[in-house]
Amino acid sequence: MRKTANINVMERAARKAARNLLHDLGEVEQLQVSRKGPADFVSTADLQAEKTLREELSKARPDFGFILEEAGRVEAPDGDSYWIIDPLDGTTNFLHGIPHFAISIALMQRGEIQAGVILEPVRDELFYAEKGKGAFMNDRRLRVSGRTKMADALLATGIPYMGKPGHDTLLAELRALTDSVSGIRRLGVASLDLAYVAAGRFEGFWERGLQQWDMAAGLILIREAGGLVTDIGGGRKMLETGDVVAGNTSIHPLLLNALKKASAST
Questions:
Q1: pTM score, whole prediction
Q2: Is the per-residue pLDDT at 27 higher than 90?
Q3: C-alpha 252: how far from its chain's center?
């Protein structure tokens, strides 16, 4: 796919923000960090990345609004178009010097995700997709995994951290799934977990309580890579509920069914 104008705009903004993040990762012990809630950290790196993204995207598309992790919602002058931004997904990894984090940008128009970019700066992996044009990683076309059996499936999930509800439900889900799948990973970056499903690295992913900026770009990546993504009820209200189940066309229904059974037992 030849990158479209919107993808190019998002990539340029993400790469500019990434340069500072990579520099700050090397000096992570000197970062000024403030505690804003239970296990929820905001760093100067996070705030600077968001500022850079806003500036770059506003220059390119002055009529678009923003849905932002730190600054909230900025209404769109055109009334229809919004950038949904996570400037540093994987903040806890970053602050511990773990080189697994991402910048995520999605474009929503008329309430529907139209395009998305997820940049993993350390490995320089750029995942991107636009509606009807396919999904790609560094110009290589992405397809979801072809594995069809749960016994062969590698899954990813998120664990509710301190102050978040849902621990009992997750434990029930893990008990139901661990004996029937190849493995379950918790890497701490939801946007990359979704990108990895699109790339066929994971067969499936589920998590509850996500925010729009955690998932928006990943949703279109999976769809354009031939996968399925729903909420835990099997519907399409992921951005409203914050609950996501993703996978290839074989694993998704099996995972969804297993999760429903597990949650019914709690």
A1: 0.92
A2: no
A3: 17
